[in-house]
Amino acid sequence: MANFNYSNVVVGVDGSKASGLAFKKALQIATNNHARLVIVAVINERNLVRINKEASVGFGAISPRTIETLKIDVEARVSNYVQIAKDAGIEAIGTVDYGDPRDILTDKIVEDYGADLLVVGATGAGPVTRLMMGSTATYVVSHAPVDVIVVRTELANK
C-alpha cells in the first residue's frame, strides 16, 4: 500500500473475520506510514439485550459476571492486537468502549486520538439487519470526518 502520510490510524475490531482482515491492513498502513495504530473495540450495549440471533448475551436480565466476562474477553482481544503491532515495531494503543460502534468510531475515537484514517471490516450484515440497524461500515463511511477504508479481502501476497 502506498504512503498517504497518515499519522494516526484507527482500526475497529469486534472478533469477526472481517475485523481481523481490517487489523492486518491497518497494521500494514501504519507500518508504511510510520503511524500510530489505535485498536478499538466497542461493546455494543444494545446487542446485549436484543431479541435476535446477533445478541451477545440474549434477552432478559444480564448478570454482572456475564458482562465482566465479555469485557475481559474483549480487552484480551485488543491487548493481543496491540502486542502484535508492537512486535511489528508499530506504536500501538488499544481501547475498549461502550455504546454504538458507529457513533464511537466516527465521533469520540476520531476526536480523542486525532485519527486521520479509520479502518473497518465489512461484516456482511444481511439485508434485514442493514434495514433495521444499518451497517456499521456504511455509517462510518457516511459520517466519519476522516478517510475510511472498508476491508473485504486478504492482503495481497507481495
TrEMBL record:
Superkingdom field: Bacteria
Name the record gives this protein: Universal stress protein
Source organism of the structure: Lentilactobacillus terminaliae
Organism classification: Bacteria, Bacillati, Bacillota, Bacilli, Lactobacillales
